[in-house]
Structure formats: structure tokens, C-alpha cells
Amino acid sequence: MTDVKQLPWEEWIKERDNPQDAWRKPEAMDDVVVIDASYGNYAGLFASSILAEFGAFTIKIEPPGGDIARKMTPYGMLVKDTGLAYLVEGRNKYHITLNLNTEEGREIFKELASYADVVIETARPGEFDAMGIGYRQLKELNPKLIYCAIHTYGQFGPEAEKNWKKPDYDLIDQARSGIMAITGEPDDPDVPDEVKVPTREGNWMGWYSGGCWAAFGIITALIWRMKSGKGQFIDVAPPEAEAKFCDYHIQWYHQSGKLRGRVGAYDSAVFPYTFVRTKDGVCFISGFSDVNWAHLCKIMENPELKDKFPTIFDRLNPENQPKIHHAIEEWSQNLTSKELEEKVMKANLAPDAVGVVATAKVNRPSETLEEEHWWVRGTFQKVKDPYYGEFVVQAPAANKMTETPARLKWPLRPVGADNLFVYKKFLGYGPSVLKKLKEKGVI
Amino acid sequence: MNREFFEWAKQELDPSKIFLKPEALKGVRVLELCTLIFGPVVPDWLSEFGAEVIKVELPGMGDTMRYVTPYGFFWKNISPAFQEQNHNKYHVGLDVRTPKGKELFIELAKKCDVVVENLRAGTMDKWGIGYRQLREVNPGIIYLANNGFGQWGPFAHGRPSYDAIAQSVSGLMTISGFPGRMPLKSGVWIGDFTGGCMSTVAVLAALYYRERTGKGQFIEFSQGENLIRWLDWTWVYVHLTGKDRPQAGNRDLAICPSDLFECKDGYIAITAFTEDEFRGLCEAMEKPELADDPRFKEPLERLKDENAKELLAIIREWAKDKTVKEIDELGAEYGFAASPVLDAKDQYYSEHWWSRGAVVEVDDPIYGKLVEWGSAPKMSETPGRHKWGARPVGIDNEHVFVRILGLSEEEVKALEEEGTIGKWGDRVGAKPPEDWDGKTGLFYP
């Protein structure tokens, strides 16, 4: 490694946190054993993926027929026996089968859980408890256990009791987070009725928010356990998890009694902060403070516009936003997205520039996938699986750390592929025992 | 339904007992030099679990986020948008670009476990207070650098970044919204908050590793990269099919049926996927034969575009003559997922959210009664909590410089006089409420 004083920061840090070298470095959580007992649930899967990316020995339990999460796939598309979403979130997990609907299966689960540090489940609240494998029962065998239950309504509360029979799904989680109510095209006369509705984020934002906050709670619990020796019970409701991302909406309601409504391309707090059509696509553009707004108007060679809406309050006036938007589009529609980006970047870097305009081409996923920057940064990873073949997935987000970067070691496994390894390693079951268990439908 | 289980869970997680329980991150001290959201949010969430946070802002103006507000609204001279990611912190007004200011920052960093910054790549290093300087004086430091495009790489320079830029470059906007419409911007600054969540998780992993080994480290996060991670099956789909992932409105292309349906009096979100759930929905619709229909019986068949569209149309036709409440209750009875769309008002008045501590009241020393989100993971031993809300610029200077750093009151006064440290300027957003008496809510003296 080269000396501190000689290298520019960019080169110095790249030498030390390049994800290419991740495999040589220690793993933050390789002393942790996780059991992912989720079923048909990507909040559970994302939570265990995060822990597994940090090196936790993660055991994914599926019923003998496989986790229905393998069937949650666009248009029913499969690679061999598994759908696309699972190709992304099966990562770094040891896959075993176990039938929790049998008495013997539950006994085996208890034995595995006595070795585990973490258990994650996404069943209806109280379901695992009723089967004798909930937190209350498992902690008798393993007092240091950290048990995380993820469900839409959580593990207690009037609506949890009323809705206990309902399963946890992303769309419902997004609907209850508060974000869907303020996302979507506004109630304008020229917007068709069918689209003037609360609109979800295209991805599983509800589930992924739940999974991320579950990982947060679990690692916090592991830190506490290091200090105190104690395990604990963690309840994560994905709508509550995603609500943490709601900007100021609960504070503003409390203080003013006002609701935000859907603003579409407009915004209640910063404008312009919007996207506009270009000759060949769409660009996002932002210049909302007075200084940056002036800079934008200068770039557009439209000083009158600046004087027409001089303060941020003028620009936040809902009546003015469509006018400002229209004026910017009159300019942007004469440029290609690339030309617009270049023009703005050049102006930002000019020596006499006062202010900065942020802009970016709005990418279709195929365009992002082709951009060199993400590949150089290790954001995407080409994987080659012995059974599922070769494909591209997104790499762990926390893959640039100098000591313990997260990493993707293998993308997934077929159903039950790790039965022999895991059952032998933890419970001493050899091939003859496994054969008998399989015949009985226990695994 | 096991009522006794719910009673037990409620006891374990009772929000009224939160302050009687320990804090997992007790003893962890965080130094923050951040503005806006994708920076401040990290120490904010660590503070909920017991970390002590020193937030450094520019004297006078402070964090730019203080001036971002809905339609220019301020409450008691503070912005609600600023409050959202600034709880439980000590607010210090310190200019790190002055030689004395830089020295003080380094002294503070020596006493901290974590440093979080979200300046442009290389800025902290240029100022002499970046990771390679701080680790010389505090080898165990965990240093998190958050920004739009990262510390190196083709896009690392010359590209300012906001949340919507992350939404743009990651592809999120073009996979959201209805087919044939413009790309859809999220109603919230989702890139900032999701990136903040994931980077906080990385800090926690680093804290865990440090408990094991004593070693600190540098972590960098890019907002765009994080959103890319959260886009589930998008990339593998594009790679394998050569096609772009399309917009689909509220329909879930990978789970069927899952969509938002219009009722007589509003909208209901419905999802069912397993055999039992789907059969339950069909029975609730009084169309049990659908559950055995070859188009719909197997989930993978149901997901095929033509079948999915037919099924969703059937459900749409059924839902329009029902009320939201009816379908919500049918879900609870027949075991499929259903819910109305909640807005801030629904959450604010929800007995369920309050009883779980998901919405909480905070009795703030300066601002009075605040309403905030409680902690997301509800933990039985070490639950999260809020102690106070956001505060004026530099109001905790004395508390931090005398009681944490150990300077004398005279030294602090001298630093103030030379402009190295300072408090709020006379602007709404930075200063205390108009009726502030000059001492209520001060931690020191």
C-alpha cells in the first residue's frame, strides 16, 4: 500500500475499498449463525441476505416442495425450477428442507435453533408460537437467541389481532406506509382517471424496507448481546419500516393539519426538482435554492424566468410550478439528454459559476446496466452457478468497506441442496438418517 | 387466533416501558458533519438506540435542510423537514474550514467511535479531517462517507447528487408508474432514506466487528448504488430477456393477484398467492370455481400476462360494488391480504400505530409536544426511543465544548468571538422560537 502523503484521496481509498479485493478480507459477521424460516416473503429474504452478505452462516429452511418465493417471478419466468426474484435473494445461503407441519420437523427445528444466534420468520403472528417453535419456546433451549418476526401488522396491537389471518405482502406494506398515498400523478384535469390513484413504487419497496430494518434490529441486538449476554425478541412491521422514509409527513400533519397529496412531477418543498422531456428521453433537473435557480436560468439563457419567480416561496406556489416546468421543457426539448447533461456540467465547472444545477438522464434499467461506472464500482456482478447457469445480479450495497466489505459468494442453491452438509454439520445426521426423514416427508 | 400470544408480545414490547430498558448502543459516540438527508439520517437512527450524537453545522446558517420546508412552512421557527432526521443530537455550530475549527473537529473525533459525513468526494481529505487523517489520531474510528456516486469511479466527480438523481440513474423512476406514462418520481425522498438505512446497517456491522476485534474501518455508500440493490428482480430480468422492465401501475408482475382496486368509496390493495390465500379470495368473491380454473390454479400459470390480466379484471369488476371496509374484513375472514391506503392522517389517529409505539409523542424541551415515528424494529430488551427533537444552530456548544471536550467557559467565549464556533443567525429555520426565554431546554449551563 502506498504512503498517505503521496497519493490523491481517490486513488488511496480505491486501493483500500475496491470490492474486487473483498474476498481477501475478513467478514464482519462470520461468527453468527442465522436461520431464515421465512416463507413466500422477500422482507425475510432480504434481511437474511444482508446478514449473509456480511458473512453470517445463513441456513434457509424450505418445505420439501420449496419456498413459494421461488415462484414469485415476472410473468412466471423460471430458470430451471426457480424464478428471477429468488435468483437475486438466495445469495450466500445454505438451503435445507424441513417440514414444519410435522412434529418431528418441529423437533429438528428446535435443535437447529439451539445452535443458532438468529431466527427470522414471516408467518402470521403467533403461528410459530402455536407450533411450539416461537420465541418463547426457543429461548428456553437457547436463552441468547435473537428472534425476529416480520409481518404487516406486527406481533401485537388491535389490528394485528383483527388481521392475524392475513399474510404479509409488499403491496399491502406499501399501501400502509403512507408513501403510496402521496406517490402518483396529481388530481389534474388532463390526467386520465385510471392513473390518478395512489401508486406503488415499481420495486418491492415495502418488503425491502422491512428487510433492511429487520437487519438493523438484528445487528443491534447482536451488539447488545456481546455486551450483556442477552438475546431478545424483535417485531418488525414493514409498513412502519417504510414509514420511517416518509420525509416530514407526520410532523407536518401534526403541526399544520395538512396532507401532502400526490404531486407527481412537482414537489411541495423544493422546486424545480423535477424531470423534463428532452429530444430523446427524460432528464431529472434540480435548482431549488435561490442561488441554484439563478444558475439554472443563466444556463437556459432565460433571465426573465428568474425574475418572474425569484424566491423559493414563489417556486413552491402550486400555481407556479406547472408554469416553471413548462418553461424548462421549452428549453430542454431542444436538447438530447446527453447534450443537456454536458451543458449543465460545463456550466457547473465554469470558474465564474455561482451555484450548481444537478441533473441526470432518467435511465431505463437497460441503460443503467450498460453504464461503465457501475461495473467499475462493482455494483453489478456476473455470477456463474453450477445448476442455474450464468446471469447478472446486483452486488451487495455495502461492498466498499476497508476491513469487512459485504460480498456475494454464491447466488442460490436448488431446494435441499445443502441438506447433507448442514444436517451433518449441526446434528450429525448421515445419509441413512436423511433418507428415512425424506421418506417420512420430514425433509 | 391465540389471544394469549398477543398479550405476551404486548408485554414484551410494551412501549410504555421503553425508558426502563437499556440501550444497545450505550457508550457509542457519533460525530456528524452532514447536511440534508443522506448523511444526518444515519446518526439519527443510531441515536434512537442510545448513541450520543454531536452534529456539527456551519455557525449562523447551519444545515441547508433547515430551509427546506413544505410550501415555506415553519413551525415555531423550525422546519418539519429538518426535524425528520435530526433527533436526540447535540447541535454544535463549528466552522471546520478555519484552523482552530479543524483542530476542534479533530479533538472531537478523538473522543468519538463513529464519524459520518456526506460532502463531495475528497473534500474532507482536502480539509485535513478525512479518514486518513482521523485514523492517525483514532485508529479504531469507524468512518462513513455517504454521497451520490461514491469516492471513486467515472461518476465520482463533477456530479452533484440528490435523491431524485439516484432515482433517475438507478432506473427506479422508469419502472414505477402506469404503462405509457412519464417516469414516476416517488412522493418522498426515497433514495436518501433507503440509502441512509442501508449505510446505517453497514455502520452497525462495523460496530459489531469492532466489538469482536477492536478494529475500525472506512465505509463508503453511494445513493445510486443502494437503490440499484433494492430493485429486486430488475437486473436479472433485463439481462436474461434483453427487455426493459416495464411500468405496471399497482399491479405486481411477479405476484398474482396483487393490485389496487377501486371500490364504491375508495381504494383497496389486495394480494393473494398461495393456494389457501387464493382459494380464500375466490370464496370471498363467491366465485370458488376460479380457484380450480386452469388459467388461475397454479401461481406460475396465473402470472402469465394474459391470465393475470383476465384475473385482475374479474377482481376489479367484483371490487367496484363493494366498500373498502367490506373487502378489508373479507381478507381478515378468508385469509388473504387486503388493506386501504393509509395517509398521514390515518396513521396519526391510528390506535394500532400508537399502541405499538410506531407513532410517538415527544415532549421536547424547547418545542413542546412533537409527534414523530417511533423506532422501526420493536425490541424487547433494548427498544429504541426519542429523547428530544431537532434544535437551533449551535445551541449545545457549551454543553459539548465544556462537558464533553473539557474546555473552559472563557475558551469557549473566545472561540465564539473569533467566529470559530457560533450559534444561530437571525433567520427562521436556524433560530429558536420567537417566544423562547433564552434558557428553557438548554442542557448547559
Key features?
heterodimer, A: 443 residues, alpha/beta, Rossmann fold, formyl-coa transferase, domain 3, 2 domains, 6-stranded parallel sheet, 3-stranded antiparallel sheet, 20 helices, 13 strands, B: 445 residues, 18 helices, 12 strands, globular
Structure description:
The complex is a heterodimer of chains A (443) and B (445). Chain A has 443 residues and is of the alpha/beta class. In chain A, 40% of the residues lie in helices and 14% in strands. Chain A is built from 20 helices and 13 strands. Chain B is of the alpha/beta class. Chain B has 2 domains: 13-230 and 359-417, Rossmann fold (3-Layer(aba) Sandwich); 258-342, formyl-coa transferase, domain 3. Helices cover 36% and strands 14% of the residues of chain B. A 6-stranded parallel sheet of chain B has the order 3-2-1-4-5-6, with helices on both faces. Chain B has a 3-stranded antiparallel sheet with strand order 7-8-9, covered by helices on one side. In chain B, helix 2 crosses helix 8. Chains A and B meet through helix 1, strand 3, helix 3, helix 7 and helix 8 of A and helix 1, helix 3, helix 7, helix 8 and strand 6 of B. Strand 8 (232-236) of chain A pairs antiparallel with strand 12 of chain B.
